[in-house]
């Protein structure tokens, strides 16, 4: 069940299907944003996804998923292939630049749903690519 949840989550991400991503989460999900604050709950996760969809178009490839033996934690390594669509506050001006980044996510799982999402990528590398 845990692997299926993670696969569904990432498939929904690639399809721009926020509703399916939300279905993969617990109501009290803790979302640890790269270089940002922890957001708690599905509503804040949905707000984050709307913001990201407005500013970026991304597809994740070269996905490798790891699941702990007890199914309570998971991790994924992947490549983010993106286009910078709209200037994000505090970041360089968006002009349709493309980028390619190595990234990873870590998950806690409860009852077949994701209760914690942590995503990391190299912001300095992203900034260099879009500047």
Write a structural description:
- With 131 residues, the chain is α+β, with helices and mostly antiparallel strands.
- It has a single domain, classed as Nuclear Transport Factor 2, Chain: A (Roll).
- Helices cover 31% and strands 44% of the residues.
- The model has no long low-confidence stretch (mean pLDDT 96).
Keywords:
31% helix; alpha+beta; globular; 131 residues; six-stranded mixed beta sheet; Nuclear Transport Factor 2, Chain: A
Helix segment tally: 4
Stretches with pLDDT under 50, minimum 5 residues:
none
Radius of gyration: 14 Å
Overall structural class, as computed from helix and strand content, comes to: alpha+beta
What's the structural blueprint in terms of helices and strands?
Layout: H1 2-14, H2 18-23, E1 25-32, E2 38-40, H3 42-55, E3 56-67, E4 73-84, E5 98-110, E6 113-121, H4 123-130
Parallel strand pairs: 1-6
Antiparallel strand pairs: 1-2, 3-4, 4-5, 5-6
